[in-house]
User: What shape does this take?
Amino acid sequence: MGFELDLEIPGVKILNVSRDARGDYVIELHSTKTATLCRKCGKTISSLKGYGEWILIRHLPVLGREVYLRIRPKRYQCFECDNDPTTTEEFSWRAPGKSYTRAYQDHVLRILMNSTIEDVCLKERLGEKHVESMLSESFFGEEPLKHISKIGTLGLDEIALKKGHQNFVVIVSSRIEKRTHVLGVLPDRKKETVLRFLAQIPSKLKATIENVATDMYDGYLNAVKEALGEEMEIVIDRFHVAQTYRKGADSLRKEEQKRLKQELDKAEYEQLKGLLWAFRKNPNDLKAKDHLVLNIAFNHSPALKKAYELRNAMTDIFDKPCSKQEGIASFQAWQQNVKQSGLNCFDTFMKTLNTFQAQIANYFNKRCNSGFVEGLNNKIKVIKRRCYGIFNIQHLRQRILLDTIGAELLITK
Assistant: This one.
């Protein structure tokens, strides 16, 4: 029993369907178009001159078999140009000069999502260059800025291409209406590189930037000021701020544990087992055994208890609703408490707080942070691990775009 096959390809009719030695389908087509555009003057021409050579174009699979379209493109002659040149018709469903249809290209990109080029090559019997070419010549190979109409919050952060090496790349992203977009992947974190990228953002698009979320790296901060103006609101992410003051408290914990290990007998010191995680946990997440080990540690070290309280007090400042001015006042009151405590474990953080106080306090204006950047970075790390590392910047950007917005653009087609 036969069945009808709709190729969903305009301007052709099926002449014949056969199967080759491997059992794959070969569909012979005839173009139903009666005109094309002259390659020289661009006018419509309809005088048929003949046919070109047969070409074989790969299409979407059917019933688990590969499908190839066989067609001879028509050639038309223009009598309005000198020497009456001929033009071979192009097919809208095939990328010029390619041996596959646009639909098949989308099919390959769909199965490439959350996979590897090697896997796709194996499943589709393709060469790596074919798959890389399909990705590069697709939407995902274009500059992301061409397809963005609004930026909102612009995020700057870096990831390491290879763990243990200092070859960082910068991920430039945006957050608008609860959606994250990749704007660029830069080859290094130098100020000049970041500045060059920011400067090339079209003026109309720059006007849609509401604020910039970043860490405390001077290269980012100075590049933003030069490219976007001194008035641009820069928000130093509270996550990076928290790392600094939590590190200060944790450094004291290490010192105190080292001291207590020397001063206490073995049985007493065993009671401090689990202190590391109990000390680092959010107080609301503590279990009974965590409270117990903390109380034992604090009885032996009042300084550690004070550092713990001061650390949590700084977190509370960020959590409570307040204005920028109120936030700064809370920072200053906290610093006064640190000075009165006599602790020096927060000295580095207080220098940071004094240097970047305005940018850190900008957080209180709209509660903006770069959590979306960190989330995107985690996705990128997964992509890198799955692909056993991607060291070509352009390929990395293409894979990020494919795996983050590919489902929206390809699967819904």
